[in-house]
Structure formats: structure tokens, C-alpha cells
């Protein structure tokens, strides 16, 4: 069975840093596209970042320059390094497997989600 | 960046009804669109991918249509368990944008 499990959330002061971890099982992060998606309290889903199988990375404008996504295929783990945290970064952060897209115009969706880890940015 | 507009924001319907949710993209995104269901305190669940393909295990009461800039999620024969928030997600230029969400209430 394919699963991901996030960890690393917590309470952090504005301006601080935090690193979230996502351990995958049942599939390899090396051959997958891996995303982070967040959800602020009472709000909708917000896509944050993705790392492709070729290590290319992309970010939402709201986190570009502050967050960094990376992976270690030997540990089958993906990380989200979050720096210069702001109150508006407070959210549940989900790690998820993205099945990607193709050039013929099809997107295959995000099918494996963790239960999320909560990040609270507050003084 | 491609913008997405999802409507309505809330929807109330009765058991057995058919409802539709719409997502509009600001530019042509082919079939780069997926639909998700999220229940309180839970992670989203993939329902539809490439605009109209039903994810394995999802009831056939759920269907997706559209391409280009307008997409529709249709839920027929509504069941109590369909009470949830539904999101579309589009892909373009390596960005994966979610719609604003539609809260479906079963009367």
C-alpha cells in the first residue's frame, strides 16, 4: 500500500525556520513527483511546492524564496525547509504524490496524501 | 499564471439530487484538471483526473467533463456521505492551482 507520513510541524515564532519531513512507503520518491499542499485554518487548499523525478523544483509565489523542497531517494524522504516564517504560513501541511502530466494535455492528479502536520507561526 | 474560478462556493441539495460544480480557467489548460473531495479533518481524496477520468474506487455517480477553460464536476443520486468540500486543481506552467472550494450540504 502506498503511504506518506509527514512530521516536523510545531509552534514557531515569526521569522523562524522549520523543516518538514515526508517519508514515503510503497513507492519511490525518486521516480515520483512529490508535492506539498497546505490548508490554513478554515480555509481552502493551497498548493505550495513540487519536486519532479529529475529534481526540478517549483513554488507558489507566496513561498518562493523562503521555502525549499528537496528529497533523498536513499531515505525515500522529501523535505520542506521553511524559512522567514510568517503568521500567514500557519496551516496544516500535506505531503502528497503527484502523478504528473503529459504533453498531450492530460493531468493525472495527486493520489497519495498524508494526514498532515500542523505548523503554527505565532509569538 | 493561470487563474481559476470555482463556483458556487456553497451548495445545498437533497438526497437523490444531481448537482454540478464548475471551474473556469483563465486560459486554455487542455485537460490538465483534477477534482478532489475533502471531509472535515481529513486529507483530500482524488475523484477525477484529466478532467473526466474516474479514479479507481470512486463511485460512478461522480463524473467530470470539459476541456480548455470550462470544467464541470457532476454528482448524481446524492448520498449523505457526499457532504464535503470539493476542489478543482489545475496544472499549467509547472504550477498546480486549487480552486476556492465548494461546500456541499446534504439537506
Question: Number of DSSP strands of chain B?
Answer: 11
**Helicity range of chain A:** under 10%
What is the helix fraction of residues of chain B, given as a range?
A: under 10%
Order of helices and strands of chain A: EEEEEEEEEEE
Structural class of chain A: mainly beta
Largest Cβ-defined interface: A-B, 28 and 30 residues
Rg calculated over all Cα atoms of chain A: 14 Å
Structure in words:
The complex is a heterodimer of chains A (123) and B (107). Chain A has 123 residues and is mainly beta. Helices cover 0% and strands 50% of the residues of chain A. Chain A is built from no helices and eleven strands. Chain A has strands spanning 3-7, 10-12, 18-25, 33-39, 45-51, 57-59, 67-72, 77-82, 91-98, 110-113, 117-121. In chain A, strands 2, 4, 5, 6, 9, 10 and 11 form a seven-stranded mixed sheet that branches. With 107 residues, chain B is an all-beta fold. Helix content of chain B is 0%, strand content 54%. Chain B is built from no helices and eleven strands. In chain B, the strands form two sheets. In chain B, strands 2, 4, 5, 6, 9, 10 and 11 form a seven-stranded mixed sheet that branches. A four-stranded antiparallel sheet of chain B has the order 1-3-8-7, with no helix packed on it. In chain B, strand 5 (45-49) and strand 6 form a beta hairpin.
Amino acid at each position: 500500500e502506498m503511504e506518506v507520513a509527514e512530521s516536523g510541524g510545531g509552534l514557531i515564532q515569526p521569522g523562524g525556520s522549520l523543516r518538514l519531513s515526508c517519508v514515503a512507503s510503497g513507492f519511490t520518491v525518486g521516480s515520483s513527483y512529490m508535492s506539498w499542499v497546505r490548508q490554513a485554518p478554515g480555509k481552502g487548499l493551497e498548493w505550495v511546492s513540487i519536486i519532479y523525478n529529475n529534481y526540478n523544483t517549483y513554488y507558489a509565489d507566496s513561498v518562493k524564496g523562503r521555502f525549499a523542497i528537496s528529497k533523498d531517494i536513499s531515505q525515500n524522504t522529501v523535505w520542506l525547509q521553511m524559512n522567514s516564517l510568517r503568521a500567514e504560513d500557519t496551516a496544516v501541511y500535506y505531503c502528497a504524490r503527484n502523478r504528473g502530466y503529459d504533453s498531450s494535455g492530460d493531468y493525472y492528479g495527486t493520489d497519495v496524501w498524508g494526514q498532515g502536520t500542523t505548523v503554527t507561526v505565532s509569538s | 499564471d493561470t487563474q481559476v474560478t470555482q463556483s458556487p462556493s456553497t451548495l445545498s441539495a437533497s438526497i437523490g439530487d444531481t448537482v454540478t460544480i464548475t471551474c473556469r480557467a483563465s486560459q486554455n489548460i487542455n485537460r490538465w484538471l483534477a477534482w478532489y473531495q475533502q471531509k472535515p479533518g481529513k486529507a483530500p481524496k482524488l475523484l477525477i483526473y484529466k478532467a473526466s477520468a474516474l479514479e479507481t474506487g470512486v463511485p460512478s455517480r461522480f463524473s467530470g467533463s470539459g476541456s480548455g477553460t470550462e470544467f464541470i464536476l457532476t454528482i448524481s443520486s446524492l448520498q449523505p456521505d457526499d457532504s464535503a468540500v470539493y476542489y478543482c486543481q489545475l496544472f499549467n506552467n509547472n504550477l498546480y492551482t486549487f480552486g476556492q472550494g465548494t461546500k456541499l450540504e446534504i439537506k
